[in-house]
Each structure stands twice: as C-alpha cells, then as structure tokens.
Amino acid sequence: MEIRFEKSKTLKEKPDQTKLGFGKYMTDHMFVMDWDQGQGWHDARIVPLAPVELDPSCVVLHYAQETFEGLKAYRTADGKIQLFRPEMNARRMIRSNERLCMPAFPEEDFIEAITELVRIEQDWVPSEPDTSLYIRPFMFATEASLGVHMASSYKFMVICCPVGAYYETGLDPVKILVEDELVRAVKGGTGFTKCGGNYAGSILGQVKAEKMGYAQVLWLDGEERKYVEEVGTMNIMFKIGGEIYTAPIEGTVLPGVTRDSMIRLLRDWGYQVNETKLSVDDLMKAGHDGTLEEVFGTGTAAVISPVGELRYKDDVVVVNGGATGELTQKLYDTLTGIQWGRITDPYGWTRVIA
Ligand SMILES: *Cc1c(COP(=O)(O)O)cnc(C)c1O
User: Is the CB of 297 under 6 A from ligand 1?
Assistant: First the structure.
C-alpha cells in the first residue's frame, strides 16, 4: 500500500503525561483511506488531523453504518514501541464489517496503516508508568443518500491519543449493576461486532446504573434475561470454586482480545476455564454460599477491572470483601508485564514497530 504523507505545519504541544485521562488529546496526524464502488480502497494518506466534511444526508448520520476498533501502542523501558496482537483487531473489524455490509479493510493494510501512523507520531507515545498511545481505527458510510442499502462509498480512518494510567493507586474494584430489563444484544443481531450502534443502545442502561451508584452494567442475554454476558465495554469472568466461567462467543458477546489472552494465560496456569452460560441465579447463589471467589472485567482500556460488588434486583453480593482478588492481580501483572515489555512474551503477542 502506498501512503501519501502530508506533514502538519503546526505541531501541538504534548500534554502532561501525568494528566492524560482517556481520549482527550488527539495527536497531530490521522490516517485516511476511501472506498468507492467499482474502485475499491484508494488514496491512503496520513494527513494533519482535521474535521471531516459530510453531506447532511450522509448514510452514517441516519443509519449508523459504522464500525470501530481499539488497541494500544506501548513504550517499553528501553524506549521501543510495541503493539499487542494487532492482527486480532484487524480480523475482528473484518467480521464486524461483514455483518454491517461494509467493505473489508485488508489485514496487512490495517497493520501497515497503524504502524506507519504510530511511527510518525512516535513522540506522542508516553513513557510514564502504565500510560500508552490509544489507537482508534474506524470506518463509516459516506454516501450522500437517504436510501437504506449498502452504501457506495466509505471512509476508513485511524486517530490516536495518549492515554493515562487507568489505575493511579493500584487496581480499584468497581460496583456493578445487573441490568434485568434492557438488553444489549440478541442472537442474530450485532452483539459480536464493534459497531457504534451497540453503544448508542447501551447508554440508557449505563445512566440508570450510575444513578443508582454503580459504575457499570452487567448485561444478561437478550432472550431470557437469565445468563450473564458482558459489561459495558468489557468481557467478564467469574472465579467460582477454583474454576473460571465466562460467556461463550456465540454471536451476542464481543470476542475481546484481552478475554482471549486471559483465557490463554489461565489455561497455561492450569485453570479450568468454562466458556459456558452462567445464570445470574447461580452467580448470586455462589456469591452467598461463599464459592464466588473473584469477578473481573477484561478489555483493552483497563486491562482488568476487579468487581467488588454485584447487585441483581434487590440482592447484593460483595465479592472477595470488596478487595482485588489474588488471581485478578496476577493476571493484571502478567498481561501488563507482557504489553509494556517488562516480562518476556512467550506467546509472540507483541510486535516492536519503532
Ligand atoms: C471492545 C469491547 C470489549 C473488549 O475487547 P478488547 O479487545 O479486549 O478490548 C468487550 N466488550 C465490548 C462490548 C467491547 O466493545
């Protein structure tokens, strides 16, 4: 792929690495490529970050034909920059696009676009402990037309922003509300894709949880509202009686890269990992009879998010005394160790790019 580069005339001042937060400071450049019916992908370019001009009738604004990805570039102690399993994101985006009738963006081009952009923006990759450069590839329909159909033009873009340490003072357990009314996904729907529409439909649940003093929503299956599926932006795992339980990837749950990596680590450590349906009743029962040992969410942003409390209707369970579990901590230390190059990567998950 040939990428045209237009350097920004004015480079922004880099923000304070100890006050980055999440998603606030975009870097100087972005990757853009266009797709048109008949022509396919063309005009790969890295250009100064700027607003996108869209016709008001543009398909994405009305029918939400949009997919995205999220991954990070990590600064290692010796100053190098590495990615973590970017091919998983590339392949997942192809599957998301297939479901939304959007053109596939080839895996090699996806990785090349990210690699080149991060190389250009390498001074933006922070070096403070646990900070990283968050990379957001996304694609949307640009055709100007109000007809509902597969669009004749799309844009693929990548933007980046330095993000702060998710935990400043060690892992911090959150309280989670099991949502028993609204649902996120059903079989045959778009639950397994990373599309903006899934998020639009989930905000009401999030608002409801926050009003009740809970940080996140735990979604149940869309058909029976009986089996636990995932948390807002994370997959979720339960340690019950020494074994791990997590929802199977059967069309409604997002196949997380972090989930997949954790399962690999856990199995290598000798844990029985059950990718199986777990009912919320069995979960709450385990919470009361003392067999529920640890609960944690998994996702790129936080890596792991320990759960200290679960509420389902009027029933409340405190997990591990509200503290971070031993296994949760070990998973966090191991995965972040591999990502930031503090420990050797026996899996070939990391890829040094600069
Ligand atoms: C992105 C995402 C996850 C986590 O996936 P990772 O690849 O581990 O970051 C989990 N659930 C949903 C709904 C997501 O959008």
Answer: no
